[in-house]
Amino acid sequence: MFLALVLYFAPKQHDYYLDDDIKSFKTTYFTPFLIWTGIIASLLIFLITFLKSKSIKQSGVSFLYAGVIFAFLLFIFQNLFLGASLFLNRQFKRETLQKSYSVSYLTGIEHTKDNFFPFDIANKHSSFDRKLRNKLYYPGINQNDTVTLQFDKGLFGIPFQSKPFNDK
Q1: What is the third-level CATH fold of 95-160?
Q2: Angle at 49 between CA 31 and CA 78, to 5 degrees
Q3: In angstroms, rounded to a whole number, what is the distance separating the alpha carbons of residues 159 and 24?
Q4: pLDDT tens, residue by residue, 139-162
Q5: What is the mean pLDDT of residues 30-49?
């Protein structure tokens, strides 16, 4: 069961999201959440140990052990927790969102999927996400065309597609 979660469930959740959106969620919310969870859990262990033993030394040792164990567990299993967060995000649709992309190709080269780079108009940057390129590209799309994708925003505000992206 655990192996199925680690090898199948958690990685499959990424198929519904753009890599840039996952990266933004991880750096802005997810990693700080894991850090604060570890700190608060370690402090609770410290307080419980202190209230039972009335010894600062014993409580400090318990705090250090708990901190190391929580850090180890939270960051070893962070991909599993991230997969669960992404899954929960998709279960509660809050609103819809449209993202517009301008079509860019490398200059002087044939217009193929390999040299197709969508430019995110709102965030003003080119995307190198293979999933986005596969979703937006079709033969005959021209330089500077505008393409719009519809996304749903979930519980944590991460945009996702209702059907998985093709990243092959």
Answers
A1: OB fold (Dihydrolipoamide Acetyltransferase, E2P) (2.40.50)
A2: 20
A3: 11
A4: 888 888 898 989 999 999 999 998
A5: 89
